[in-house]
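Ligand-bound model needed. cobalt (II) ion.
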Amino acid sequence: MLKHPEQPTIHDASAFAAMRRAGQFTAEILDFITDYVKPGITTGELDRLCHEYHLAHGAVPGPLGFHGYPKSVCISVNEVICHGVPGERVLKDGDIVNIDITPIVDGWFGDSSRMFYVGNVGKKAQRLVAATHEAMLRGIGAVRPGATVGDIGHAIQTYAKSQGYSVVRDFAGHGIGRTMHTVPQILHYGSPGKGLRLEAGMFFTVEPMLNAGGPGAAILEDGWTAITRDGSLSAQFEHTVAVTDSGFEIFTLSPKGWHLPPYSRGA
Ligand code: MF3
Ligand code: CO
Ligand code: CO
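Prediction:
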């Protein structure tokens, strides 16, 4: 069976314009939800707030109903690697939380996630979060025409390892545009010069998940929530990017400059 029969789409200027709008809206929701991430709130309430924000601005939450996914965003706390299904879980002081937003804006998908601190977070967890953000940036930094997907994965994996963390292998970044998940697959590990060669006009996500312990993942009975097999902490950041003539463009940068916690609030 052919795994990836299609070639990645090379997008034109109007697609770039559409993705800038979708990407900015994605970042705007993450900025909006930041103030609500506090001890005592449930992940279900955060999902509801994000859901309403989509609708209030004429966007559609991409995850809702996607392969049967029951909620509008993914919220992954502590040992949850990704695809945490919002519900009754109450956030408590010291938790680290990933919120992953995938809106459809005028038919185009944005996809981005950030980590958040709930109250006072311990040094170990802070170090994991900072390293995960840096790993993502190093992966994105490898993006340019002529580089390969292996270069992206290698940059991420090498940095993660140097910091004493493991990279989750069960989930990957993905091509994106008018569909949420398409080619190319962006593994967060790899070998320099190996794999698909990047060309200007490709759109995809870079979304590494780093574990404090081993890389193993398990799926809970809800069929979605991925947790670390050893119960160790996990962190993730995600941006939607394009390959450009000169390198890369990040579509999902925060309008407020809130890239890495702790985020300045109000004031
Ligand atoms: N945003 C997720 C990703 O990064 C996918 C969300 S769709 C869901 O690919 F159904 F898995 F929630
Ligand atoms: Co994604
Ligand atoms: Co995502």
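Residues 63, 66-67, 69, 74, 83, 100, 102, 111, 207, 238 surround MF3 (ligand 1) (CB under 6 Å).
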